[in-house]
Amino acid sequence: MSNNEEHITTFKAIGHPVRNDILTVLKAGPMSAGDISKNFDLSNATISHHLSILREAGLVRERKDRNFVIYELNTSVFEEAIRWFKTFI
């Protein structure tokens, strides 16, 4: 995938209101999908769908912790986006 395609994927993922809100929730630190979903009036399946898109865009990472999948922000993608934005200044 080219850098432009990566940026488009990143910004599409960030641009959805629910995904943007999930990223905001994850600023507090790593948490399970169940804990994330407690912040929303949406089904677990819907939250899982949005987490998958965020993961595919590289914005979140996941890891197994016993019976749970823990999600956390991947700040390197945000840092890369900031570097890209700075090329326009």
Automatic annotation (TrEMBL):
HTH arsR-type domain boundaries: 1-89
InterPro entries named in the record: ArsR-like_HTH, HTH_ArsR_DNA-bd_dom, HTH_MetalResp_TranReg, SdpR-like_repress, WH-like_DNA-bd_sf, WH_DNA-bd_sf
Transmembrane spans: none
Keyword Transcription regulation: yes
Keyword list, A-Z: DNA-binding, Transcription, Transcription regulation
Pfam families associated with the record: HTH_5 (PF01022)
GO molecular function: DNA binding; DNA-binding transcription factor activity
Protein name according to UniProt: Winged helix-turn-helix transcriptional regulator
